[in-house]
């Protein structure tokens, strides 16, 4: 299957998801996976602002990227942070070049330690409202082609529309409630990952994959399953670990 056909399938998948009630966390997690697949990048992260306009990590393609993004937030530096702050795109940032990483040396060092050599950040915005950033990482020194940049921005735009779509007349109230609920759900999901990883003596990525698989196969929202696990209401022995 060529990339053009696959891109069309991914767009249709996103639109179909948005037409029904959907789990925002799972939607954005799937966005990360699709970006890795279509853009041939090593890892992806999504950051969104909460009700107080504070940038928060909401999805990441793997545990290393999640920790790196949290580092960026804690130190308030990095292309992703600057992208949200200014609304400007950052492309082909060579993490091994001091001149390219002026302003965020701590983030660059942490990214290199995590195994990344190049990063990109694209704004998630609608008109003049910037609600977050889509962050792409390569493990080698690479540049995005113009076609890749257009596709990455299109995927970021689709996600932005999904987040900001109107479900009531008061769009702003819905946006705040949905994002706040998603951020709270993220905390519960991280706790559930920790519970599974500890019980199974495995890594967080494996635990998260099992968590998502069980939620999908049983048509349960990821956040609901995570809440049941953390509260002890769900028997984790019934889950498939592989």
Automatic annotation (TrEMBL):
Pfam families named among the record's database cross-references: ANTAR (PF03861), GAF_2 (PF13185)
Keyword ATP-binding among record annotations: no
Keyword Transferase attributed: yes
Domain ANTAR: 169-230
Keywords of this entry: Kinase, Transcription, Transcription regulation, Transferase
Alphabetical list of Gene3D superfamilies matching this protein: 3.30.450.40, Winged helix-like DNA-binding domain superfamily/Winged helix DNA-binding domain
GO molecular function, one term: kinase activity
Protein name: Transcriptional regulator
Organism: Streptomyces xanthophaeus
